[in-house]
Design brief:
This protein has 296 residues and is an alpha/beta fold. The protein has 2 domains: 7-94, Alpha-Beta Plaits; 131-294, Rossmann fold (3-Layer(aba) Sandwich). It has 11 helices and 14 strands. The chain has helices at 17-30, 60-71, 73-77, 86-95, 137-150, 167-176, 187-199, 217-222, 234-239, 241-245, 264-272, and strands at residues 7-14, 36-42, 48-54, 80-84, 100-102, 105-108, 121-124, 158-161, 180-184, 206-210, 225-231, 248-260, 276-284, 287-294. A 7-stranded mixed beta sheet has the order 10-9-8-11-12-14-13, sandwiched between helices. 43% of the residues are buried.
Length: 296
């Protein structure tokens, strides 16, 4: 597990789920993975809290402007900023989360091990400073599409690009009993993915490496890939369309996410230009997840 001395926290209290999701969307579109961790939780009284954790002190005027644009100046003015121990908020946040089901998969914390049904493939995610607990619409969309693909097909060479906590790589490895290559640009995320793979008895199947794009020798030795999972962001996904297409086997499948619904057409166009056609488009909580296939 990765533990840091402290983290900078932003708290926003709002009245309803729709407003909370609007704030989350606004913040996640600006702050990239590794810069901030954004989460929204419903309180017992029905109101919602949006909490953001930064490794570095945030630009407070920018945060207020983004929240104000999404939810109004009154809510923006009520934002609080403080500093807390990283290990405390991460553990507390995950303890508040309930298990999330996505097809055959169910993502859960340690405290919910006993709640995993026997007919589900449980994936336990340890508290850590990395993205992908399964509670975000992008991760759940990817898991649903992965479950759909595996019902009719058995890929052997799988890549999880931008692995975060490793949840997608672990899901594929455990379902297929095959080795999966997982990469991330962020060194702490790589270690978190390795830790989570070991926790889920798949450390021998998931190889987590640090890499930017496809610039690592591991890709050449493992390609061409039958299935690529990439839960990143819209702009990097568009930029990776060409390099990714060159790493794919004939008739390979690609699952993409991390893009807002209005960004999906541009991402689809980028991959269609490289010979990949869309098969399914899932919309979960305002986020899009795409399933594409390489045309021979």
């Amino acid at each position: 597990m990765i533990s840091l001395a402290s983290t900078h926290r932003v708290n926003v209290a709002v009245g309803d789920e729709h407003t909370a999701k609007g704030i989350v969307d606004a913040l996640t579109e600006i702050f990239f993975e590794g810069q901030a961790a954004v989460a929204a939780f419903e309180r017992p009284d029905g109101r919602w809290d949006v909490t953001v954790h930064f490794a570095e002190p945030p630009d407070q005027p920018l945060v207020r402007e983004l929240v104000g644009n999404a939810a109004g100046t009154e809510i923006a003015a009520s934002i609080t900023f403080d500093t807390v121990e990283a290990k405390d908020w991460v553990k507390a946040s995950l303890e508040d989360l309930v298990p999330v089901s996505a097809g055959r998969f169910i993502v859960h914390g340690q405290h919910d091990r006993a709640r995993v049904p026997p007919n589900k493939l449980g994936i336990e995610i340890e508290a850590a400073l990395a993205f992908g607990t399964g509670h975000h619409g992008t991760t759940r969309g990817c898991l649903l599409l992965l479950d759909h693909v595996l019902k009719a097909w058995r890929p052997r060479r799988v890549l999880d690009l931008g692995t975060g906590t490793g949840v997608l790589a672990i899901a594929a490895a455990r379902a297929l009993h095959e080795k999966v290559l997982a990469s991330d640009i962020d060194p702490p995320s790589v270690q978190v993915a390795r830790d989570n793979a070991r926790l889920n008895v798949s450390g021998h199947l998931v190889q987590a490496i640090r890499a930017t794009g496809f610039a690592a020798p591991h890709f050449a030795s493992r390609a061409p890939f039958d299935l690529v999972l990439a839960n990143i962001l819209a702009n990097p996904l568009r930029q990776l369309a060409g390099p990714m297409a060159r790493q794919l086997a004939p008739s390979a499948m690609v699952i993409l996410s991390g893009l807002l619904t209005h960004q999906a057409p541009a991402v689809i166009a980028a991959y269609r230009a490289r010979g990949l056609v869309p098969l399914r488009h899932l919309r979960v909580e305002g986020w899009s997840s795409l399933l594409l296939r390489k045309v021979n």
